[in-house]
Amino acid sequence: xxxxxxxGQARALDGICELDLVISLNIPFETLKDRLSARWVHPASGRxxxxxxxxxxxxxxxxxxxxxxxxxxxxxxxxxxxxxxxxKDAAKPVIELYRSxxxxxxxxxxxxxxxxxxxxxxxxxxxxxxxxxxxx
Length: 136
Fold this sequence. Notes:
Radius of gyration: 19 Å
Structural class: alpha+beta
Oligomer: single chain
Keywords: Kinase, Nucleotide-binding, Transferase
Number of strands: 4
Protein name: KAD4 kinase
InterPro entries: Adenylat/UMP-CMP_kin (IPR000850), Adenylate_kinase_lid-dom (IPR007862), ADK_active_lid_dom_sf (IPR036193), P-loop_NTPase (IPR027417)
Family: Belongs to the adenylate kinase family.
Number of domains: 1
Strand content: 5-15%
Number of helices: 4
Domain Adenylate kinase active site lid: 39-74
């Protein structure tokens, strides 16, 4: 989940700056739940592993110390499901606010490498390229 997450945060952000573009990534509930539930942490260092995308060399232990990894309480599947439901309820008015302003751009998918080209195209059309010094 990104920012702002609630209508109150969106209104506070309005007091700081005027947004002209908001990106919403629509990812299926089960995909999010599976990804967040695959997160494990080495408590002493804070190193984070993802069992799908960045697993430890040996299952269940930190690569550098060999100490056990733990799953935070809020990363357990049932807690993740509750967090996602709460986020969806809180974020709905934020999404509607930005949609009503005509600045919301939504992208759907399950894989970053498939969504990113569309996001990049949008951003490229809105942000002028930075040219090297010799081209100025």
